[in-house]
Amino acid sequence: MMTTTEYRNLAIGAALFILAACLPFVGGAYLLTIGVTIAMYTVLATSWALFSGPTHYISLATAAFFGLGTYTTGLGFEHLDYWLLVPLAAILGAALAAIVGVATLRLSGVYFVIFTLGLAELIRQLVTWGQNVSGQKGLYVLTDLTEVHIYWQLLVLAALVYLTGWLIGRSRLGFALRIIGDDEEVARHSGINTARAKVLLFMVSGAAAAATGAILAPRYIYIEPALAFTPMLSFQVVIMALLGGTGRLWGPVVGVIPFTFLWEAISASFPNQTTLLLGLCFLAIVFILPKGFVGLLTTIRTRMNAREAFS
Amino acid sequence: MRADAPVLSLRGATKRFGGLVAVNEIDFDVAEHEVMGLIGPNGSGKSTTLNLISGALKPTSGTISLRGTPIGHLSAQEIARRGISRTFQLVRLLPSMTVLDNVRAGAVFGHRRRWGAEADAHAMKMLELVGLARRAHAHVGQLTYIDTKRVELARTLASDPKVLLLDEWLAGLNPTELTEGIALIRRLREEGRTIILVEHVMDAIRSLCDRCVVMSSGTKIAEGTPTEVLSDPEVIRAYLGDDDA
Amino acid sequence: MDILFTGLLLGGTYALIAMGLNLQYGMARIMNLANGEFLVAGGFGAFWFFTAGQVSPLLTIFIVAPVAFAINWLIYVVFLRPLVKRAKSRGQLEVDAILTTFGLAFFLVGLTLAFFGGDYFSYSYLARPVTFIGETYALNRVVAFFAAVVICGGLWLWLTRTRAGMSIRAIAVAPDSARLVGIDVPRLSALAFALGGAVTAVGGALISTFLTLDASTGVLFTLKALIIVIMGGVGDVRGTVIAALMLGILETFVATLIDPGLTLAAAYLLFVAILLFRPQGLFGRRQA
Fold first, then answer.
1. Who wins on pLDDT, A94 or C173?
2. B95 is a domain residue
3. Fewest CB atoms within 10 Å of the CB: A119, A156, A243, C97?
4. pLDDT along chain C (288 residues), means of 10
5. Residue B64 sits in which domain range?
């Protein structure tokens, strides 16, 4: 079944991961910090696009899943083996996604956006309230894990996300999602259980985001609701994924890398204007790059092909 | 023919939208290998009836059964899996995909589920049946109007449906295309498929249908062979209005 | 009793804000996620005029409304109309509108932060107690409530009795047919959008007399307004009012009896319940 192109893509992917895994040996501390940020957003944006790309539902729940993951580590690391926490967070994330999905994915996209936007806020308020009642403020996550460990863990997670995405793309589920993305009514009348397909994909992206949060918790050392559930995270993930383009599996990472550097520069030079610039990024994506870098490349390629055909 | 249990039967099927009764207590049966025409003036409830059968709408009351099993409460996807497949009044294709992938959608998820090479081969066979095999790898955006209709027909056929619902499949075709379209449906008829046709084109009804059900204002007003129903005075009145009767 | 009346007073102002969003989403078909920012802007206008020139917020709304109307009209024409034109489907327009209005929301918050900083702004206007059936209420809440009632009533009359209002409602029900009967859909959509923005800004000016606002609270109000609109039914004026009053009572109830930090959580749970059991809104007909 596998074609030569697919083997080639798989080989290229594997080579890139090995290359990325070598970063701690060649780069300094600063590069490693950037590396962690890029790896984190690669996981978040790619898993976001796995769901939102074909279904066109915009999820703003990333922060909710991410926070759930950080709190899983924060509350559990003294009681459970650390290596159990990340899969546990993934399971919790998938479960939360399943509940949210069943409640909202039958409805129009607008309801879903609002629901997911409110979700992080809801959990944040509940956690804050719980902490007020119990008299405890934040959580200390003290482990002997270093930045390098976190980086490698994120890379493994990213590889898993890509592998999952690739497998889904080759499966009936992937084909079903493409049909749903094109015309949901046709999908239903062709015999596709549209609700189930959407919920399954949302669970994948929820699990990935929760696992990311669980991996990153030791980096923060001290976690509190405002940090773990920051809505900014959800918005940045949306921007990066759309900037890269959601039509291809490799699309989001093309957005993540330049955006991370851009954002580092912006936060350093205009720390007070970040919100304003984030707004401009949204507008730029809609009006200048509606299909992301991937779309731009496809347009250029078709134009070049057309030119060859006519010459 | 009557001895066989019907493939599809409607008993008292009714659909209300608020105060408006779009389909009112409709009864009819469709036998195996039969081509049944569902005809009537605009707004008489034909398309709504088709939507009830395909599960796009749920009946307010009454039963719809497929080989004796009630299906009225099922969702569209479950009905599709049980073997009722439809085309849409305004053609609906999957715009980002090739012709072959459009047809594959029916082969992969329909009544009989295939995957991989088997699905591809089956989809190709359906494209040959509708006469579009050489355009299999074209993008659907490049097709002519009748070819988009062929793709949609191939997609519904690819699921091996027990009952095929064609919602004004011949509408909007020019005279040459119409001849081709009628010939295509006749071929399906000769293959022994069970079909319900919602149609306005009278020539097609006369030459294709074994039997017709005529609807007017949501109610069934006549049933019989095309010749019988088209000479029925009540049917003529429904089409032309009281003044001309 | 006390909770009920305080809740009703709060709900009255919510109704006004949600009505603004409902005009934009139900009639102009744009989900404006920057709606809350106009609320904050309206509140800021009231604050500024009051502290700088002791102008009563009840007079300020006559300045706030036309300014907000003009800005929203411009936003519609410059940003949203091109999206409406290029959209191939309702779904695509929805996604584009969500992203654009989010972008605008961030942009506006960013502007406010850049020029005025992240301070809370509050002022003391009519902060006197009034007594009603043995309980005391703040006069500013009562005044805001009655102002909201007057404006809601006026809007309702405008929508049901005037030609423009009825045309706008026709667009809400059936945009395609509205075009066929000679309604200028693009112009009236812009009008509905601008009017919605103005109504929300006025609601903001009123709410600022008794609530403390800052640049980042906009999104919370957007969320509340959305919950009300969906609960009451998209495009349904009566439903919006009732849903707003319910939300006001629920929030006051939770804030008084459990914890003020949980008001949004309560509103959200109400929203979940509505989505699960009556996704068409409290009074909406189930769409087939």
1. A94
2. no
3. A156
4. 80 88 83 88 86 81 89 90 80 83 89 75 70 72 82 84 81 73 81 91 87 80 87 81 89 85 82 77 56
5. 1-74+200-245
In this structure, is residue B13 part of a structural domain? yes
CB distance A208 to A47 below 8 Å:
yes
**Domain for residue C282, yes or no?**
no
CB atoms B76 and A193 under 8 Å: no
Residue at C47 is within a domain: yes
Give the neighbours of chain B: at least 3 Cβ pairs within 8 Å. Answer: A, C
Q: Which two tokens stand for residue B145?
A: 């109007």
| Domain assignment present for C19 | yes
* Closest by Cα among C220, B155, C133, C252 to A122: C220
Q: Count of domains in chain C?
A: 1
Out of C96, C262, C275, the one facing A103 most closely (by C-beta) is C275
User: CB distance from B93 to chain C under 8 Å?
Assistant: no
Query: CB distance B109–A178 less than 8 Å?
Result: no
- Cα A287 to Cα C194: distance, rounded to the nearest angstrom: 21
Which residues sit opposite C47 in a β-bridge? none
Residues whose CB falls within 8 Å of the CB of residue C27, separated by 6 or more in sequence, listed in order? C168, C169, C171, C172, C188, C189, C192, C193, C196, C235
Number of residue pairs across B and C with CB atoms under 8 Å?
5
* CA–CA dist C114, B238 (Å, integer): 71
Task: Give the model's pLDDT for residue C1.
Answer: 65
Size of interface A-C (CB pairs under 8 A): 121
Q: Counting every residue, how long is chain C? A: 288
Does some domain include residue B245?
yes
Distance CA C288, CA C284 (A): 12
Contact present, A175 and B105 (Cβ < 8 Å): yes
Between CA A190 and CA C226 the distance in angstroms is 34
The tally of CA atoms less than 13 A away on the side-chain side of residue A52 is 31
Kindly determine whether residue C288 and residue B18, on different chains, have CB atoms separated by under 8 Å: no
Question: Closest by alpha carbon to C23, among C186, C247, C240, C183?
Answer: C240
Question: In a 3-state reduction of DSSP, which class is residue C122?
Answer: coil
Tell me which residue of C13, C16, C9, C10 sits closest to C152, measured CA to CA: C16
Beta strands in C85-231 (DSSP E): 129-132, 135-138
Residues of B in contact with C286 (CB under 8 A): none
User: In this complex, which of B80, B96, B115 lies closest to A182 when CB atoms are compared?
Assistant: B96
- Structure confidence by residue, pLDDT tens digits, A172-222: 999 999 999 888 899 999 999 999 999 999 999 999 999 999 999 988 888
Distance in Å from the first CA to the final CA of chain B: 35
Would residue B215 be called left, alpha or beta, if left means φ above 0 and alpha means ψ between -120 and 50 degrees?
Answer: beta
Q: Are B61 and B236 in contact (CB under 8 A)?
A: no
Domains parsed from chain A with CATH numbers: 4-310 (1.10.3470)
In a domain, C111, yes or no: yes
What is the reported pLDDT for A2? 61
The answer to whether residues A191 and B84 touch, using CB atoms and an 8 Å cutoff, is no
Distance of CA B47 to the CA centre of its chain: 9
Residue type, C261: G
Name chain B contacts of C285, Cβ cutoff 8 Å.
18
Instruction: Give me the interface pTM, i.e. the ipTM.
Output: 0.89
The residues, any chain, with a CB within 8 Å of residue B59's CB and separated by 6 or more, are: B13, B14, B15, B23, B52, B72
Domain count, chain B: 1
Q: Which range of residues forms the domain containing residue C105?
A: 2-277
Does the beta carbon of B92 lie under 8 angstroms from any beta carbon of chain C? no
Residue B8 lies in a domain: yes
DSSP-derived secondary structure for A112-170: HHHHHHHHHHHHHHHHHHHHHHHT---EE---S--HHHHHHHHHHHHHHHHHHHHHHHH
Report the Cα A184 to chain-centroid distance in Å: 24
